[in-house]
Amino acid sequence: MSVEFYYLANVIVASRLICIFNDQPVTRRQSVVVGLLQWIGLGLFELNAALVVLAVLLAFTNFLVHFFENRSKKVNEPRLLVLPVYLILLSIFFSPEIGLRFNPDLAAGIGSLAGYSLLLSESLNVDWLRFQITLLGFLLVTNEVNLLIRYLLSIINLEPKKELRADKRLITVVDQRGYNAGRLIGILERGLVYYFVLNAQFAAIGFILAAKSFTRFKELEQREYAEYVLIGTLLSMSLAILVALLTQMLLP
């Protein structure tokens, strides 16, 4: 895979972060913002017919996500299913037959300005392929893995629950505050695990588990909540380790 492929994959995955704390169907405005961010990312490529077609297909894909989320009132399934679609599109447009490439004038312009900026001169020494692969893995454990975990928890009905009184009766609903707190903790947890695995610091993962168990010791006395925390933590860490190992395999 080329650095161009990983760069645009990062742009697409990063654009999806706009909905990371949104459990409602994506709005038209959010869909437009996601599309604009992706189109801005396309600005680094050489303008040709293939680039225009890719821009149109990305916009159409975002429209489909918006349509299906609002039609089905579900968010995790459409957002999970669209990621392979993005990857298939990228694999086609960065194939040898089409081979989208960065605009050569961009590299020439950076090279000519490097003598006037320390940051630009240092950027010429960066292994950008390695950087883009590592960044893609981090973005995957941040948001995409979170979508998968929440989808799996909903299937087995293990979301944190709370009781509310409505019309003189108690109803059980998802504890959104607890869910969001768990999501934020999970993001930080997976980010650390991802870093530790890439740097072969496996012993440090045990400290994350110990710290999490200590901070939620009292809450673990509730059986249902304990099951949610235990299964969620094991899923979160296992997937973060898996992504980190796959990233290591891809690194040059």
Explain what the structure shows.
The protein folds into 2 domains: 3-126, no CATH class; 143-250, no CATH class. By secondary structure, the chain is mainly alpha-helical. It contains 10 helices and 2 strands; from the N terminus they run H-H-H-H-H-H-H-E-E-H-H-H. Strand 1 (161-166) and strand 2 (169-174) form a beta hairpin. The termini are close together. The mean pLDDT is 80.
How is the topology of this model organized?
Layout: H1 3-15, H2 28-42, H3 49-72, H4 76-93, H5 104-113, H6 118-123, H7 128-155, E1 161-166, E2 169-174, H8 176-198, H9 203-215, H10 223-250
As residue ranges, the low-confidence spans are none
Mean pLDDT: 80
Kindly provide the radius of gyration, computed on alpha-carbon positions and rounded to a whole number of angstroms.
21 Å
Q: What is the strand tally?
A: 2
Widest beta sheet: strand line-up: 1-2
Strand percentage: under 5%
Helical segment count:
10
**SSE order:** HHHHHHHEEHHH
Sum up the overall morphology in one term. Answer: globular
Which structural class should the secondary elements be placed in? mainly alpha
User: How helical, in percent, are the residues?
Assistant: over 70%
Terminal CA distance reads: 10 Å
* Total domain units: 2
Major sheet size, sense and barrel closure:
2 strands, antiparallel
